[in-house]
Amino acid sequence: MKRQLTLIALIFALCSTLSACRQNNGEFRSNTIITAVSADFDYLNPLLIQLSLSREVCTLIYPSLVKPTYDEKTGNIAFSPSAATSWEFSPDGKNVSFHLKKGIRWEDGTPLSSHDFKYSYSLYANPATASSRQDYLNDLLLKENGTPDIQRAVETPDSLTLVLHFNRALSASIVLDHFNDLMPVAKHVMEQFKPEEIRSRATEIPIVGAGPFKVSQWARQDKLVLETSPTSTLPYPAKTRSLIFVVVPEYTTRLAMLKSGQIDALISAGGINPIDTRELAQNSPDIQIRPVKDRYFDSIVWLNIDGEKWRSEKKVVPNPLFGDPAVRRAMTLAIDRQSIIDGFMGPEHATIVNTSLSPAYRSIANTSLDPYNYNPQKATTLLARAGWTPGADGILQKNGERFSFELAAPVGNPRRNYAATIIQQNLRQIGIDCRLRFEENLVFLKNQNEFRYEAALSGLAAETLPFQLIIWGSDFQNRTFNSSAFQNAELDSIIGKLSGPLAEKDALRLWQSYQRILHDRQPRTFLYYYDELEGFSRRVENTDINLLATLYNAYDWTLGKEP
């Protein structure tokens, strides 16, 4: 209750901090959409972002070359103009020219130009920046040492023309997806900071965008205030004066705030718990629930390498517990995933998977693979073959080492908290000591990136096929999303081939092999793709919630009158 009262006071305090709110609270609530999220954003600089919601917010602040749209019927993604009005690919798939829209300006009035893109690509490619999207640039022309040659590969014939040259033929969808994700930063701002300082001095770097919103205030672990950017032409200034994200770690508090009208939306970290949907439908008719299907999956990331050896010596040594794929398969068999679904989400809101591929892509699904149904007896047999047998205390042991580890998970996520408890119980039944550790979201993410865990209950928004191609890669140091440090040469080759232009039958064959490798090696125990149920007040109008993003068209959101 104390926390809730504090948040109520915060909302009224927000009113006083915004110039638009000085008249009265009624005017403030008619022009401001307040959203509750479970955790703060990692960064609001596209060079550094890793969290999916941070990326979504950045698309509202920074320019993007194109605007993706998802066709639910075909499962395909199309691209329409945004900062680029048009583009042409060369017949050999090795070059593309983008023509930028005239009159785009950064919010400080400086014109956006092709030079901003080129400079930004040099920062994305620079190892000192440590961008999670650094690998995208490896498709450009390369220097003799194998690093991207930005000077040769990115041409700027004039301020409105951007030409990219690749070292191999690429499919148009890969180029548009990847380079659209490489949102540019303002060259005149970023030139003031050395690449090796960008991450350490992130809080000092001004957030200067050109999108429909601009950042008015960001109080870490508290709130983010976006205001409409009156000069934006990408596509136009946001229709709502302010969009506020309030950080509320406790789910029950977030839900109570939505019910009482203190907030207008509850998104991220699973959104609305499925168990609460019936009560909301009966008692809160002013709340609508918008499902995001087939976008998010949960998994247990098994660290494939010895994290300490890697951090101290940069040596790849198999993890003593999870370096063996037979052990990882056993872990998947030992976990009752259907029980987690039935107990928390309900079978209509989740689909068990055994790879990272979304169920949305039914046409390429490899249906011949073992479903890994819950089978603790088979799991025990696999572990025994790998040398893990019961010790005196009932816990499995091998060469004097107990099968004991911590499973890390983020706080504020009831779905993962529930899953962690079931997983702990399942593993205890076969003689594995699994201890739970819940961490603040940014700490949890940092520990994953530095391989400071044995296992982590984590997930991804992995909605597009091009994104599937950057999750994995044996060069895990530069593949931030490969937090299991999984290495497989055959998968590397398949990913490389899938990035190029292919006949449909060849692409299908490669996608089937992609799934087989992940299924057989189980770098993660893939739990399920689940529906994220976003909660909105019915006052929030014009929302387009889809596979690509919850904030997909947040610049079009408006508030209707109080019911």
From TrEMBL:
Molecular-function GO term, any one: peptide transmembrane transporter activity
A Gene Ontology BP annotation from the UniProt entry: peptide transport
Range of residues in the leader sequence: 1-22
Coiled-coil features, chain-numbered ranges: none
Family annotation (InterPro entries): Peptide/Ni-bd, SBP_5, SBP_5_dom
Solute-binding protein family domain boundaries: 79-465
Keywords of this entry: Signal, Transport
TM region(s), chain numbering: none
Source taxon at top rank: Bacteria
Gene Ontology, cellular component aspect: ATP-binding cassette (ABC) transporter complex; outer membrane-bounded periplasmic space
The family this protein is said to belong to: Belongs to the bacterial solute-binding protein 5 family.
Name used for this protein in its record: ABC transporter substrate-binding protein
